[in-house]
Amino acid sequence: MATPTPVVAGVVRDDDGHPVAAARVYVVDAPVPVPDIAALSGPDGTFSVGLPVAGRYTMEAAAEGRAPARATFEVVPGHNWLDLRLGG
Question: What is the pTM of this model?
Fold first, then answer.
């Protein structure tokens, strides 16, 4: 049986906890080379990014007029959840 491809899904929020639409979410550091692309969060702040392998990743979210949010975490095969909070 094949190992499921890792997917990171989550939500981008402002510092008050409200969802942020159209935030760019991208990989900053990964265990293997990854394309230089970004996902955009939806109207409800949610996003989903497929990753090539499990391992330690750093991801960042950025939106116009807000300080970016960054998180480093361990990605496992299958679905992973990430909640990113942008600064004011």
Answer: 0.92
